[in-house]
Amino acid sequence: MDEIVLRDLLQSNPDDQGAAEALARILTNGQRWDELVQLLLDRIESAPQGNPSLYRRLAETLDTKLHQPSEPLIVVLDG
Q1: DSSP 14
Q2: pLDDT tens profile 26-59
Q3: What is the pTM for the complete model shown?
Q4: Are 37 and 61 in contact (CB under 8 A)?
């Protein structure tokens, strides 16, 4: 699916897990780590209850891809 379509779907329905995962794959394949981090933060913010897998994925991306190991702790504490 096209990235623009996925972003439109998520804008109208932030809980669309399929669209979010498809967009995450596009961003990961393109090594667009900053955009992936923002997508994960948006998903964490819109989740009614904490989703540990989203926090874990965010922490891994920040640590291994953006080399910001201290950021995950700040995000979890602020979240």
Answers
A1: T
A2: 999 999 999 999 999 899 888 777 788 888 898 8
A3: 0.85
A4: yes
